[in-house]
């Protein structure tokens, strides 16, 4: 219930913000006691997760006898952690193009996948990724339509220029905070967007203009969530590093990336005030390459007193995906990396331990700043 209320509140607040000249509220409302406002302290927790994929094995496992699809089991062991955050965000890396449902290389997931994602506790979904045009104009528009109907706020792709103008940059208002989210992708697997649809691509001129627009919305933070990098590489590319530095110079406060399908290092810069996570990896998928069958959730604890907002703490947790091929169960499950041995069979434990060892070693060598793993 908490998450349903949060989602509806977010949707309402976003619409309200956009209807008020991109977040500029007029001064006709009640007067505010500024002394009380300056002494009041606000807190907000953000949870950001990686790529929600839908491969052939997942389609087969989710199919029920009556022809419907069920994904609730996939999220049941991570749902409490998702719901614990005030706002949870994830990359929705499939389209909802309708039947026939398809897996790689051009994804068209059942509508139930979206519903289960939102029921798991995700409040905002990202749609600018290399698979957002997999089912062409129909898929892009139908994905947006279903998200709007549910409703769940989203950003990254748009039916036309007017929709983008009204909805982007994305303004999140929650717990006394104003946070602008930006989302853009390196490409769309060679598929061209069909006018009047719009996909946010990595175009520095466009991004610079969006950041300037974001600043006028008087945000406490600007968070960029780029879809970038090289698949299956554990270290960020030179292009990722260059773009990260450029984004920060333009006024972005934090960067949380995705696309490589494996985790990449996390940095705390600027005396711990700036978070840069290059890639969170997959959230759920049927991929079996090394380091693809798990990922990272990043948690940010924010505080605000008066007009001063800051990042109080940033941490990350690890999880892995148990497939029917290992578990013998019908469906996929996402488990905390700290799941007790008693809940897992030998093959699941081997899968968990392999991922945990690899990523912990990676982070030990390459993470920067005092960012720590937490358990759930």
Describe this structure in words.
This protein has 376 residues and is α/β, with parallel strands linked by helices. It is built from twelve helices and 17 strands. It has helices spanning 2-19, 34-39, 56-62, 72-75, 79-84, 111-119, 136-149, 161-167, 204-215, 238-250, 324-327, 346-366, and strands spanning 41-52, 87-92, 124-126, 154-155, 157-158, 170-174, 177-185, 198-199, 221-227, 254-256, 266-269, 274-277, 282-284, 294-305, 308-322, 333-336, 372-373. The strands form three sheets. Strands 1, 2, 3, 4, 13, 14, 15, 16 and 17 form a nine-stranded mixed sheet that branches. Strands 6-7-9-10-12-11 form a six-stranded mixed sheet. Strand 11 (266-269) and strand 12 (274-277) form a beta hairpin. The radius of gyration is 20 Å and the shape is globular.
């Amino acid at each position: 219930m908490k998450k349903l209320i949060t989602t509806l509140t977010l949707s309402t607040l976003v619409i309200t913000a956009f209807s008020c000249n991109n977040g500029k509220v007029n001064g006709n409302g009640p007067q505010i006691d500024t002394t009380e406002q300056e002494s009041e302290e606000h807190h907000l927790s953000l949870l950001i997760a990686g790529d929600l994929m839908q491969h052939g094995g997942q389609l087969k496992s989710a199919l029920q006898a009556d022809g419907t699809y069920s994904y609730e089991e996939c999220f049941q062991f991570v749902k409490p952690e998702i719901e614990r955050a005030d706002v949870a965000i994830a990359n929705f890396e499939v389209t909802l193009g309708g039947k026939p449902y398809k897996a790689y290389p051009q994804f068209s997931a059942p509508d139930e996948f979206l519903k289960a994602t939102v029921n798991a506790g995700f409040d905002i979904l990202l749609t600018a990724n290399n698979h957002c045009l997999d089912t062409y104009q129909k898929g892009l528009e139908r994905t947006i339509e279903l998200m709007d109907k549910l409703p769940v706020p989203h950003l990254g792709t748009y039916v036309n220029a007017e929709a983008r103008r009204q909805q982007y940059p994305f303004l999140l208002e929650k717990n006394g905070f104003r946070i602008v989210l930006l989302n853009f992708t390196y490409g769309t697997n060679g598929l061209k967007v069909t006018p009047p649809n719009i996909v946010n691509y990595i175009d520095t001129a466009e991004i610079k203009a969006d950041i300037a627009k974001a600043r006028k919305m008087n945000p406490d933070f600007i968070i960029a969530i780029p879809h970038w990098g090289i698949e299956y590489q554990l270290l960020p590319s030179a292009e990722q590093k260059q773009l990260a530095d450029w984004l920060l110079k333009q006024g972005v406060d934090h960067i949380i990336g995705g696309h490589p399908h494996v985790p990449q290092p996390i940095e705390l810069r600027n005396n711990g005030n700036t978070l840069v996570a290059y890639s969170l990896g997959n959230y759920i998928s049927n991929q079996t390459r090394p380091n693809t069958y798990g990922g990272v959730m990043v948690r940010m604890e924010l505080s605000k007193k008066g007009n001063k907002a800051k990042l109080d703490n940033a941490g990350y947790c690890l999880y892995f995906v148990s497939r029917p091929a290992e578990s013998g169960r019908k469906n996929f499950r996402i488990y905390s990396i700290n799941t007790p041995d008693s809940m897992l069979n030998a093959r699941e434990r081997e899968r968990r331990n392999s991922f945990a060892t690899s990523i912990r070693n990676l982070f030990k060598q390459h993470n920067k700043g005092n960012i720590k793993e937490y358990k759930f």
